[in-house]
Design a protein that fits this description.
The chain crosses the membrane at residues 49-67. The protein is built from 2 helices and no strands. The chain has helices at residues 3-24, 50-68.
Length: 71
């Protein structure tokens, strides 16, 4: 693998991991703050936004592609 591809790949991994950490921070949804915390292992209460779920899905797909070597 050429050096520039390796550097770009590492930079891309770092950006994805940063986004993954942001998504893992607890989030609160105002409609039902007691039941709508989203953490690293918990998602899917009725008050969660579709954007949180979509972000987690996209991040998971990108991480899978990175670790399989497709990116």
């Amino acid at each position: 693998m050429p050096l520039h591809n390796s550097l770009n790949r590492n930079r891309f991994k770092d950006k994805i991991m940063e986004q993954f950490k942001v998504l893992q921070r607890p989030l609160r949804v105002l409609k039902d703050a007691r039941r709508c915390n989203v953490g690293p292992l918990y998602i899917g209460t009725p008050g969660d936004t579709i954007f949180v779920a979509a972000g987690m899905l996209v991040t998971g797909i990108l991480l899978a592609r990175i670790f399989e070597g497709d990116v």
